[in-house]
UniProtKB/TrEMBL annotation:
This is Protein/nucleic acid deglycase 3. Keywords: Hydrolase. Residues 2-163 form the DJ-1/PfpI domain. NCBIfam families: not_thiJ. The keyword Lyase does not apply. Pfam families: DJ-1_PfpI (PF01965).
Amino acid sequence: MKSVAIVLADGFEEIEAVSVIDVLRRAGANVSIVGLDSAYVRGAHDIVIKANLLLDELDENKHDMIVLPGGLPGTTNLASSEILLEILARFDKHNKQIAAICAAPMVLERAKVLKNHFVCYPGFEANVRNFGYDDSKNVLTDQNITTAKGPAFSIEFALNLVKILFNDSKYNEIKNELLI
């Protein structure tokens, strides 16, 4: 069974987190909701999610992918975690899948794992880095890194993660179930 860790910090974007959790679970992935530093994590719009475990309890060897939702100040909180940056570097070193949406590609750049091309929330690219931004795509995969623009593209992002983790058949199955 494919296993995914989605890391939440206070101020995360709820649509981006819950959509990804839901779609990946529909596809059959084991999704761990990981609190950066608390079991109860408050989103940017005051929705509280209970994490299954804390970041310092995460067993990296049991996960095929790590996903970071955006939102502010959630992204800033993620980017300030040295533990998370080290985990991302190890995932990348082992060529494991890493995904970030909205403002969260900034965390990938801080961890030095972002590849040549990326997308993020339009207008936020200057906070990520000054090259490689591709405004022509909603979701972009470059090697083992997948990035997406933002809330409106959460389902498209999640479906692309299904395709990466499973296959085109599972992607189409879940896409059809969601009436897309």
